[in-house]
Fold these 4 entries.
Entry 1:
Amino acid sequence: MAVTEQDALARDFSSHRAHLLSVAYRLTGSVADAEDAVQETWMRLAALSPEQRAGIRDRRAWLTTVAGRICLDRLRSATARRERYVGEWLPEPIVTSVGGPPAGGGIGEDPLEAVVRDDGVRMAAMLVLDRLTPEQRVAFVLHDAFSVPFDEIAEILGCAPATARQHGSRGRRALADAEPPARVPLSEQRELLERFVAAVLSGDIKAVAEVLHPDAMIVGDSNGKARTTRRVMVGAEKIMRFIAGLVERYEPGVFATARPVLVNGDLGFFLEASRASTPGRHDVDAHLQTVAIRDGWIVAIYDQANPDKLGRVPDAG
């Protein structure tokens, strides 16, 4: 069967899909918004005449710029939605299987598997991006992560190149000031998390304190639809009391059913929702947890309990 021009265009666009998803996810913090932005980018490319497409010198750069403009609009509209959000907000996680494709990828690989290999999408870094203004986020991400010139970023933002450069500089400074922990090897993550989980399950508060940094924090996201902390909780002692209270509140052994997954490329655990069978015990909401590690300590725990953001957790099989 003859390959049409549209088929060839679609195949070429597919080769850029993982890149565009990475751009859009880092700009929006939402898998759904990122996928919508990529789809809209495709529609804009497909709507061009052959002559207009032939005039594009660097198609990847053109697609990146278009995706950036679409994401800027989404970021600006998201500001109002965030004001109505109940409690803290965490980026929508990208959840993949621990035994996923090898690091080199391959034919048929889910584009999201490629996205999470980027150190810049780890949860700690994404949270820092969320503190930036839409203009700062677009300028910083597009320039520092994807090498888009400030002249082109200025066109996206509708400002002068010098102003775009200033937005990028402020975003860069915010990331440096926050200093989110770098990604550590999975083997180190596994060893520390196993110690932490074993200590929690045994109720050994002393053992928990040996892996939890004294100034550790826990951030919960539920939008009022599940049980988790609604405010950022800081301090190992507070977190240990919080965890001890959860263990007492739920069925014995329920936390042992959590299974390992990768959350934005880092090791985490997914606990499925379950009903309590013992009087006085609470039902369990679904939870997805991952941590940030620095110098052998757990310095942050991210507890995603908003069911709207847990629809893409892979099946246990």
Entry 2:
Amino acid sequence: MVSGMLFDIKHYAVHDGPGIRTTLFFKGCPLRCWWCHNPEGISPEKELIVKPKRCLEECRLCLSSCPENALSKAEGKTIQVDRKKCRAQARCAEICPTGALEMVGKTMTVTEVMQEVNQDRIFYERSGGGVTFSGGEPLQQPEFLDALLTACKKIDLHTVVDTSGHAPFALLERIRDRVDLFFYDLKHMDPDKHREMTGVSNSVILDNLRRLADTDSRIHIRIPLVTGVNDDDAHVRQVAAFLTELPGIQDISLLPYHSMGSQKYSNLNLPYLRFDAKPPTEGAIAGIKAALQQHGFRVKIGG
């Protein structure tokens, strides 16, 4: 039976496509975006998250539960994790009474996921919603994604795939007949800056977008706006010129940068690369929206 790893299932989602939706967050991503607000979705493996504010000073239950002795706790301090030793076996998270330790990442079968999805079917029918595949990057787990899309279409559910586009085009071609809408991320037009910001070139991403647009697939472009990175007039003109050449592209969402996910990096012992970034101002966002609308695009702010 086909299975895969998710790091979250969000019920009653209203910003991940039309109507009320169930959003499935796939674990694993080939990009390392500076501003990523879901760092727990980057690694394809299970991970232990530490939430210091929930840790009780007098509690030591987790220490004896770890077979690798990866946990330690100094007097007056929160729990510490030796990431080199930790094998993410979840025993410490299971025994923690306050939720200070949480294991992120769960292997699930297609049947198990569809049981979760079916809980929300009445909301889809009333709102025109469905299932959104997000991440991480869903295309990192192609067999799992393929099987879930097939299961959704067997019961006539609307499907959205939210992708960075960094994958072999054959994977997009393989699934597109069961995808009602692609959310396609466009982060930067310059290949060198894109590599600096995300760890990968944008050549595959842009080429895949061109090829996907030629298939008459429905595509909604999503652009993260990061001050000083991709919000200048020259870059906005580049984006508009590129998208204008693609058939069928009409919808763009602008996603202003925020730092609400920064604490997650500390909880995972990961460096937060954009700690100094500022959210774009309302005036800057409005100006970019207006500039893109002048080219005939339908533009909205947020998901």
Entry 3:
Amino acid sequence: MFSFLMTQAARARRDAQNWLEVADKVFHYRRDELKDSELAELNLRRQDLRQRVKQKADASQIKLGIEALETVLHKVGGHVYPKTALADNVEFFLAAAIIIIGIRTFFVQPFKIPTNSMWPSYFGMKSACYSVPANAPGWAEQAFRLLQLGATRHTAVAPASGELEIPFRGTQDGQLVVEYRRTQGRKWLVIPAEVREYTFFVGGEPVSFQVPADFSEVDSMVAECLLPKSPDLRPYRDEYRATGHARIKTGRHFEKGETVFSFDVLTGDQLFVDRFSYHFFDPQVGEGFVFRTRNIELLGQDQYYIKRLVGVPGDVMEIRPPVLLRNGSPITGAEAFDLNAKRVGLYKGYGNGVKNPPWLGLLGKGETLKVPESSFLALGDNSYNSLDGRFWGYVPAKDAMGRPLFIYYPFTKRWGPAR
């Protein structure tokens, strides 16, 4: 960095040390392959240059020693020297990959929150719908939103003229559920990934779009932007039960080539997870809690989940809405516990589990449970929209991965230390 302050002789000695490192590497890697004469010549030039450096010869003398050593290295270096740019780059990226894998495995791992089970403490993917497509941000603002919020645009264009119809799947907790199918798509346009594919109809012709598999906001987006206020869904529900399919007539008509709808998918909070602490300290009640699901039978998948740790082995848990009780008293240890208990702002409180096969339905009304040994209980802050321990049970202690440290993206008011 400050080489411009060095004398010419000092720079020459520094260069000589670099060449000696290369020569030493060739010697150790290839000494069993070289002829005795080649090995002797290499050693002679190594010793000569090392002696010149030791005696602090002037720059011109050191340069002559470097040139003599380089000539020998070209003859005996083999695959070690000279190295091609490709080999250098491969070695660099392999070393970088090993370091990154080591950091991710033992220290800090990035994690993206896909769903809103921890909302509003952490945000999953959300939608921003433009009910009037002409009001959607232009390309400059869209580029800014992509950088700031990870917002990706989804637009559907009418393939024909006619009324917009939306395939109906049913209702859940009084909310519309739109028909979709899971299929293979692309992440970042390159990486294969599972996606949800929705198909709407305009004038009887299909128009499809895809969203990430974990994105569950399409139903609310449709209800907000594409349907009349408080639509009567009963006829469609009856039709779906009778025939297995139904299309909601929205009453909205479009001309061929006209934009039917436009919305952005905003990325979920992306944070760094501390994987180091749990090797030395037990997880603490109230912490954000990241774990693997590979040994949770009812989930049937190997993924990473984030919830809030509410119970450790031996704890007796109970829910008396909106309060979560631990060992007979309102739970403490996190701000989210207090906010849920008081139903402050966007925190709606804790709700009882409901028996709904194949889910367990733990912590139902009037029920208590005791957390078993070598297990943890984890619940979402967004209790009424969280698939958590009430439904699939306990997290094995061996699958506890770490706690969230820092929200590094997107760049919103939540950026900073994780709560």
Entry 4:
Amino acid sequence: MAEQNATVPMHQRLEFRLGINVGDVVIEDSDIFGDGVNVAVRLEGLAEPGGICVSARVQEDAVGKTDLAFEDMGEQQLKNIARPVRTYSVILDRAIAIVQPSPTLPDKPSVAVLAFANMSGDPEQDFLSYGIAEDIITSLSRYPSLFVIARNSCFTYAGRAVDVRRVGRELGVRYVLEGSMRKIGNRVRVTAQLVEAESGRHVWANRYDRNLADIFALQDEITEAVTIAIATAIADAELQRAVRNPPGNLDAWAAYQRGLWHLGKVKPEDYVLAQRFFQQAIALDPPFGGGYRGLAFAQFQEAAVFQTRGLHEAQISAEALARRAVALDGADAESRSCLGQALWARGELEGMLAEAERALAISPNLALAHGVLGAALLFSGRPREGLAALQTCNRLDPRDSATLPLRLNQVALGLYFSCEYEAAIQAAKRGIRSYPNFPLTYRWLAAALGELGRTEEAQEALETAIAIAPASFDMYVRGRVPWMRPEDHAHMLDGLRKAGWEG
């Protein structure tokens, strides 16, 4: 068939799969049965188009007696077969075999979502299991930081027992998502697991049990939950992957991830290191927007949180970097969000809001864009709307160590602006427990405690806010930063004076 296909157009080729096993066969009328037959059938499903897959017993009998070579596929768990079966792929004659080299991995994290297996025994439920996987592919494709393989390529593995390592090699991806669906009565159980293809290591797994009341609502709910979870899991895995690499052996993406890792430490010295890694990413790959985005954010954070550099100088540099990232790719939602943050630094709240909305139009599930939208609304006198956007941001990405300290601080100040002082205190304490080095949150804790007359606690929080970063406290309190309205600044000062501040 390979010889015949060599002269036939791709769409007219006939390609067969073969599965070969040795075992007992039961013959009845004109049909055959038995485990030997069942294993051969499952091996056929494992074979590539135009390929042959054999069990270990066949390989043992054939090796050394034929000119064939075999590739070990490891032990495979075959459907309806009790024990795993050691499996081999026959390496065909190189003269006639059509060899396709494995695609190279993209610069950013890549993922393939396989069709979910329908374990219900009801073929009518195939549409649900396939639909969930297809919707996840669509949702993940909206994340600018991911490279997602298209549905048609992913679904070629449907109905086959697959080795995720092979899927990773053939599709050129770092991560593979696989799952299954089982319907029992009026309930459905969906399981999903994300695997690092190269190592076979499980990065994330979860199970969802739901009532089968509204099939489309169920599909949407599971799709959203899985998408959010695996996008976060991939981000975490990429961060750890970068940290494990020696600093001198980083490509642009890994250098960018290493910079994000240092940002999450929320220390002045780590902000300096983060900027070095972002500059390294720019030097290694000038068209890559991530380096410019990261450097812009680090410069602004360094000035806004610890004031180890001038705010005005940092804002000008950050905006130039963000505009460079947008110029490289105007459809990159992360770059649009970064530009929104840079505009925020000089009090351009309308421009900030516009960039956040542009980013969300491009990528509706981008947590960063929801965070920028939330900040724009908070400081524009719309704190309740801002808190709702921040809640969405935290749900989409609850563990982003680079931006989470700022987000937790913004939740506390949003509640303070809404005069919900007790809730502001609790939010500030949650932020401080996670990031005790982040000085801005102590200021809102002190102000909220002051408004409630809890003077002793307020004084302690006030002293801590000043001690951690005195220059930052002076910048926000004695002056007024460009993005804070006069009435909001006066509201903050009222709480701080009640906390014991005498400025």
